[in-house]
Amino acid sequence: MAHFLWLLFLLISSATACDRCVHQSKADFFSSDAPLASGACGYASLALNLTGGRLAAAVASLYKGGAGCGACFQIRCKDPKLCSSSGTNVTVTDLNLNNQTDFVVSGTAFKAMANQGMDQDVLKLGIADVEYKRIPCVYQNQNLAVRVEDSSNNPNYLAIKLLYQGGQTDVTAMDVAQVGSPNWNPMSRNYGAVWDTSKVPTGALQFRFMVTSGLDGKWIWAQNVLPADWKSGQIYDSGVQITDIAQESCSPCDDGNW
């Protein structure tokens, strides 16, 4: 019994809750940004507005069935002769099915890891040894927004895409209700960053989002998002922004010296 308790203590103490964990892997790149923009998250051309073309396809463990869409990471290659110590920031817009690398990034992002004047040399690496960490997404003067998808049909079916999610969290659940009503209807993740429901309340609509926060979760309430006459293809400001920082379990934690 004493041996079991000691082993349990070692397992618990070996993992620390961190704001940032540094991971070691490899990264490949697409020569064009277009495949990542039209990727599994469903952002399409709107992806190019997220981080100026610095996009990434992430492996399944980071894509998280679509919950990882829109997550921001700082990636740097490990060759100091070619690459800067700060690396580059990317936003996840696609699923990476290549199990040899954690990321396939856009050519724009791959070159951005380079020291000044070394971008073509970095491209010649093809696949680079990298280290990365998740970082908060920051959108200056931009709230979380929802785009009503073209497939929506007021009042029978509603599909929305989440855009400009700040902070360092994942949206794991989402509900919709008429403004002022306590009767919430759950929405389902259709794919990627797109949520939908065929049980659409009438009138103006409010949303609430369950996001990871620490090692648990919390609800974020957007009180008045869609007008009663909402229309397909339109983007609406939620009036809120997510700024929470989720915790990871790792040892050691990032010391911040990037």
Structure description:
By secondary structure, the protein is mainly β. It has two domains: 19-135, Barwin-like endoglucanases (Beta Barrel); 145-237, Expansin, cellulose-binding-like domain (Immunoglobulin-like). Helix content is 12%, strand content 37%. It has five helices and 16 strands. The chain has helices spanning 2-14, 34-37, 60-63, 107-112, 119-123; strands at residues 16-18, 23-30, 55-58, 72-77, 88-95, 103-106, 128-135, 145-148, 158-163, 171-178, 185-191, 194-197, 205-213, 216-226, 235-237, 248-250. An eight-stranded antiparallel beta sheet has the order 14-13-10-11-12-9-8-15, with no helix packed on it. A six-stranded mixed beta barrel has the order 2-6-3-5-4-7. Strand 10 and strand 11 form a beta hairpin. The protein starts with a helix and ends in an 8-residue tail after the last strand. The model is unreliable at 2-14 (pLDDT under 50).
Compact summary:
Residues 38-142 form the Expansin-like EG45 domain. With 258 residues, the protein is mostly beta strands.
Query: Which fold name fills CATH's third level, the topology of the largest domain?
Result: Barwin-like endoglucanases
Secondary-structure content class? mainly beta
Q: Find the count of extended strands (DSSP E, 2+ residues).
A: 16
> Largest beta sheet: what is the strand line-up?
14-13-10-11-12-9-8-15
Put simply, the count of helices is 5
The poorly predicted ranges are 2-14
Using the coordinates above, name the CATH class of the largest domain. Answer: Mainly Beta
